[in-house]
Amino acid sequence: MKLVVGLGNPGEKYKNTRHNVGFLMVDKLFGEVEWGVSKSTKTLRSWVEFKGEKVELVKPQRFMNKSGVAVKIIKKKHPKLKNEDIYVIHDDLDIKLGEYKIDKGKGPKVHNGLASIYEQIGTKEFWHIRIGIDNRIKTSFKGTGEEYVLGKWLGEEKKVIDRVIKEIKEELNVII
Questions:
Q1: Sheet holding 43-50, edge to edge
Q2: 11 Cβ contact list (under 8 Å, min separation 6)
Q3: For the domain that residue 127 is a member of, what is the CATH number?
Q4: Which of 7, 41, 111, 137 has a CA between 20 and 30 Å from the CA of residue 93?
């Protein structure tokens, strides 16, 4: 079994923000899937079969800084789930827009969703799919990092992120 978690914030207000790129990636990873609501984990969840193995897709419906609670509950429900079979997809302000990194055990310097997961499951040793969103210099953005990540995609940025999602999807099809 594999677990793929896309990080984001719930609700319409955050739907097309840079911080929700994890949700966007999970939506595109395996094509159209049917999402169910889990009240116990407060997540949207779906199951797919990939390469003969079950893959659980998850979009936590708590705010980003509480994402780890859902991951901890899911890990408890699947005691045989290994950390190396967990893939967390998230935005990374340390990486330029148009770039990405897939690393095991390594995330950005500051990310409240990841900090929550690290705290709740007691490790960083899972796959981090780090999607670069930093375009502040090019757009002459003057606000805080928090304001930037909660901002909506600009037209050109959306085209770039769609291309990156296709590239990541191809790479994940090999490693998952």
A1: 36-38, 43-50, 53-60, 2-6, 86-96, 127-134, 100-104
A2: none
A3: 3.40.50.1470
A4: 41
- Residues marked as catalytic: 19
Question: φ and ψ at 54, to 5 degrees?
Answer: -75, 135
Domain that holds residue 67: 2-175
- The pLDDT of 89-109, averaged and rounded, is 93
Q: CA 20 to CA 16: how far, in whole Å?
A: 7
* Token pair of 45 as six digits: 């969840």
Whether pLDDT at 106 is above 90: no
pTM of this structure = 0.94
Residue 173, number of CB atoms within 10 A of its CB: 12
User: Tokens 């909506």 correspond to what residue?
Assistant: 152
User: Which residue type does 15 have?
Assistant: K
* CA pair distance 64, 116, nearest whole angstrom: 8
Could you tell me if 82 and 54 are in contact, meaning their C-beta atoms sit under 8 angstroms apart? no
Number of structural domains in the chain: 1
Q: Give me the amino acid identity at 119.
A: E
SS3 175: helix
- Dihedral angle sign, alpha carbons of residues 41, 42, 43, 48: positive
Task: Identify residue 106 by its one-letter amino acid code.
Answer: K
Helix (H, G, I), strand (E, B) or coil at 3: strand
Nearest residue to 4 (alpha-carbon basis) of 32, 18, 33, 25: 25
